[in-house]
Structures are given as structure tokens and as C-alpha cells.
Design goal:
The chain is of the alpha/beta class. It has 2 domains: 151 residues, Aspartate Aminotransferase, domain 1, CATH 3.90.1150; 230 residues, Aspartate Aminotransferase, domain 2 (3-Layer(aba) Sandwich), CATH 3.40.640.10. Helix content is 39%, strand content 18%. The strands form 4 sheets. A 7-stranded mixed β-sheet has the order 4-12-11-10-7-5-6, sandwiched between helices. Helix 6 links the parallel strand 5 and strand 6. Helix 3 runs antiparallel to helix 11 and helix 4 runs parallel beside helix 11. The longest helix is centred in the C-terminal third of the chain and has 25 residues. Pathway: Amino-acid biosynthesis; L-arginine biosynthesis; N(2)-acetyl-L-ornithine from L-glutamate: step 4/4. It is found in: Cytoplasm. Its main location: cytoplasm.
Amino acid sequence: MNKEPVSRELFDDVMVPNYAPGKIIPVRGEGSRVWDQQDREFVDLAGGIAVTSLGHAHPGLVGALTEQAEKLWHLSNVMTNEPALRLAKTLCDLTFAERVFFANSGGEANEAAFKLARRYAWEHYGADKHEIISFKQSFHGRTLFTVSVGGQPKYLEGFEPAPGGIHHADFNDLDSVRKLISKEKTCAVVVEPIQGESGVKPADQAFLEGLRTLCDENDALLVFDEVQSGVGRTGHLYAYQMYGVTPDILSSAKSLGGGFPVAAMLTTAKIAASLGMGTHGSTYGGNPLACAVAQKVIDTVSQPEILKGVTARSKRLRDGMMAIGERYGVFEQVRGEGLLLGCVLTEQWQGKAKEFLNAGLDEGVMVLIAGPNVVRLAPSLIIPESDIDEALERFERAVKTVCS
């Protein structure tokens, strides 16, 4: 085993340069605290970008992983396994879904969702009904198909030609969808209930209700990308339940595994029938290790007291960040739902979100950005209130440094 010293500089020598990681290397975590190589402590408000839903090294997740690791790691989908079946049954019991497909990441879950939408339309209406409507500034993954459906051209640059038949409307603008949708051509409308990467922008109630109606009128499927908003992050198990608008297909990942790679596509039995034998697959999808961990996550997060606690923690964090924003004139609003929050910079500080992130690290608090103008927060759903208070104190020191 290679035990040579590891430094941030090694990244530049051995890794493809598509990331620009920070200068610290975390080596250990517990709850909502993380320690780096120098044993420096940080309060984690980033959550691995809305992934570590129960914090770091949660005893229940460690136990589930260890127990399964001693039994069975992998089979391939030539055979099924007990953890996958149990998890699928749980997801169906707790949501609108009747069928589940497992994958490893949000991008893969969305790839499956988009393929299913086209396949369903092809089977039921013919090849002409293949167009997908998505939204500007949306984000759905990094595969060629998902990055094409996503509404941020910068992520597609240099990878053209993109898959065709994809159109982008304006988020929260139902009229822009009406201009694009048609019964003859449109197979699906794809939307994030809360746009995450573009700045934590919640959909309006009337907008999602209108999308449901338009899809019904045009025989199109409504696809919710809940990769970031799902598994308790809004204070509901899935955001569609908060809105009372039920999609035909839903993608879930990130918080689903609490840090272990796993994803799921949820849909109805009628729609799922279009992904018949051999039409799609995933070598690791439904892996026993991943499903055992995800089962523990869902069993924990779906408890009413956990979801209620998300709402209480959200208010504490939102109020604290807004107070900091008002004291220093840096945030014009804090938007989002539950523990997916975006602190929008005032005009004076536009474009400088990364400065606040870096200053936060210097003060021992980890935050995220969502574009150049928004500081994003996505901590553990069970972060102790004392950790929220400590994080706010540290972040205020960071803000003071940036503003001085």
C-alpha cells in the first residue's frame, strides 16, 4: 500500500483538472464536524453538496454498511438481492411510485428518466413524439444527454453535437412552456422543484400545478428532478409532496445514500413497462451495499420527528444568515426550503460568492456557492442546533473579514 505523504499539490500531478478543490484535505468527520490533515476543525454546512443527509460517520449508517459488507457486496443484475428489494418496496410505500430503477448517481437516474420518457412516448404515440422541454439554468447531470437537457450552455461547450429534440423554457414562466409544448411532439417536461445549481430557486406553486395540467393536456410526462431537493431536504420526504403536485417520473440521489453512491428513478407501473428486458441497465445499480445504506437513510429521514426537525433547523439557520446579511449589507434575501438555502448577495457584492466560501474555510466553516451570486447551505438534516449557532458565529467572522 502506498503510504507516501499526500498533499493538495499531488492533485495537480495525478488528477484530471476538471475540478479545482480547496487547499484543505479533510480526513475525518463526525456528525456535522470535519477535521483536516492538520487536525483543524470545521463545521459543515455544505453536506457534500446536499449529500451527507445524516452527517459524517452516522452510527446507523456505519452499522448498516458494516453488516452488509460482511454478507454480500455485489451480484450484478443477473440476480436480484434482498437490500435492493427492501429499499424499492420502501420507496414505493412512501411515495407515488409503483416501480423503481436503481443507479449510482443523479446523472444516471436522470439519464434513465429521460430515456424512459422517450421510450414510453415511442411505444404509445410514435417516433415523432420525442421532444423534451426543460428550463434555462437547470442542471440535470454531466452525461451528454443530461447536460443537453440541462439549461446551462457552458456545460455543453466543446461537447457538441448535442442530442436533438430538447427545448428550454423560462423557469417559473408557464407561458414560455405553452409556446413550446405540443401533443404531437412533446414527450416530457423536466423540472427541478427547486433549481439548485443556478441559485436555489424554488418553483412557484401555480407554476408546478400548471406544468401538471399542460402535461396532461398534451399527453406528456412530467419529470421531477429531485436529486438535490429529495430525501427530507425540504422538510418533506420529497418536494413534490410539499407542493401537492405528483410527477410521472422522479429522480433521487445525493441524500438518498447519505454519502454512499446510490440513486433511484421512481415511476408508475404503466410507464415503467416501457423499460422492458434489455432496454436499459446499470452494472452497479441496486448494489447490496448501497441499498442497505440507503434503506437506513430512508428509515431514519422518513420519521416525522426528523422531518419536523428540518423545518426548525431551517428557520434557525435562515434567520441567522439573514441577520448577518442585514448587519453587513451582504445578503438581500435567503431563499429555498428546509435545509437547502441560498443566500443571495446584494448588488454591492455580486460575483463574490467564492470569496465568502474561502473566508468561511479560514474561519472553520464549510459553505457552498450556487453560481457567483449565491452562498448555498445544505447541511446534515440532523445538524445539532449548537453546531448551527457555532457555524453562524464563524461565518459572521468570515463576512466581517471580507467586508473589512
